[in-house]
Write a structure and sequence with these properties.
alpha/beta, Helicase, Ruva Protein, domain 3, 48% helix, Zinc Finger, Delta Prime, domain 3, 5-stranded parallel beta sheet, 3-stranded mixed beta sheet, elongated, binds zinc ion, 10 strands, Rossmann fold, 618 residues
Amino acid sequence: MSYLVMARRWRPQQFSDVVGQDHVTQTLQQAIKRGRVAHAYIFTGPRGVGKTTSARLLAKAVNCTDLQTSSLGLPEPCNKCHQCLDIGAAYSLDVIEIDGASNNRVEDVRNLRENIKFAPSALAKKVYIIDEVHMLSTAAFNALLKTLEEPPDHAMFIFATTEIHKVPATVLSRCQRFDFKRISTREIRNHIETIVKGDKITVDDTAMVAIAVKAEGALRDALSILDQLVAYQGDEPITGDIVRQALGLIDTDLFFAATDLAATGRVHLAIELADMLAGGGHDPREFLHGFQRHLMNLLFIRAGGKPEELDIAESFYEKYISSSTMHTDEDFLRMADWASQAEDLLRDALDPQLRLELFLVKIARMDRAVDIGLLLQSLGAEPESYTAEEVRGPVSKAKVESPAPAPVNEPAAAIKVKKDTETAKPDSTDAAENDVTKGPDEPEEPDEPDTPDDPPPPNDPAPTATPPTPDKDDSPPAKGPESDSPENEPQLTLMELRERWEEFCDNAHAMRASLGSTLQAGAPISLNNGSLEITWSDDESLWRDKARKNLPIIEKAFEKTFGTKKRVSVIAGNIPKGAAPLIQKTQSEQNKEELTLVLEDRPVWKHLVERLDLKLKD
Ligand SMILES: [Zn+2]
């Protein structure tokens, strides 16, 4: 006898064997028990959840001559009488299965109408099972209506569909409707366990969970996957690794690696992780989607949920519990938000891999933004301070995926300050309180000039730079001879450069693919009339070398982005943390001016500088 696939070999022979649809099967059994079987049913639900199987069981049960009683006291087909055996083997002429997709014409329904008049040849009831009934044409549906309303006593209809909304209301109103649900991962996993025990196959728990998750609620899919794996493995045990390899699934450890990134803050690990994913042939979209699920699991555990209730293998329980304590709810939510934004952006991305790299780099840099938020809190600067954008200033490189990330998850974004900070006395909280409008519900109004997406055109005096430079306005001739800007245009500041760093990276990427992520990992240290200095973390000398070899391209990308020429140089030394380069490292007059500009623009920094009484070293 030829091989029968598992889904057929293990097809339920009784209502109680149907997995995860008790609400349907028990109602049907009750109807049979009370002799109240309707003449038309419609079963709806996702694919592979047991609709057709239940239809056949119902056909058996209404025709069985020796109904049995289950442990719940409900009727079950005997599976021994002629009727049951014929229907089970699909030999019966009176159980007619029609594929709605290929028999959707009005002529097909007319044939059905002719044939339904004849009494069943061997069974008590003629049962018409029409699969994918939503595929019938409108004319076919109309031709069916009359028969459906008053079929002969010897006939009944069972429709199955995955798209109930395409079935006309006139048809629906003539049927009893049953909604089949997606089967839970746990139920699928347990069913797989029953099957592998029955078939004497060795499959470990991780593998069973991985198959069940992949099946996405469809038991038939799970069994097809299992079949495929058994064919692939022969008598060898099926492990989680085998399942991942065969199905191209992403190793759960890689998701943990991504959440670890935020704790370690090591950018080069982000790039390595992206490489590993690319090397494994994983679609960035799939990773981002899975990562959101992973974060959801972590949040669930943080909220006091038990790992047993999640769709995860037992071997990961401990890891989920310990990982859930690494970050706050807000951080996990923020990562999820970024992942979702990155997923959206992927749709139009020319280079999805780069998007993924940037996303992971952003995750790796996340802690810095948090540090500043915490710092503010510890300073008691609560008087309601600043927009997320203002707080994140120095980390604008982290604004990788979206220029205006949804601020809801920013701890510091719940509080907002009026624009004119001059009126707020930094040392008087009372004064500040009068000055601020707070409340997390208040919609964020992004200031146009602050949006990196929308940089001021070169000829437009940037409004952010105007107020703090009255001195400069008095002495326009002071501008350096190298300045290629129009008279009234302020020079490019380090802050503007940082805000548009991503655009710069994108332009560099367009010129040479690897330069995008190289620059992304770096940080601009100083910007003079003629030159720009960039550095990387000490442990990222590879990037530094790569940048050194590509200086002409970087300069070209710079000119393209900012419309002005700069000599770019790569300097040694670590990236100073947060605002450090501006406060500690800038020594020249130029940098002092720049600092003033920056501080006017960034009330958070200004506040910090005042609070900590920071001074510039000369
Ligand atoms: Zn029977």
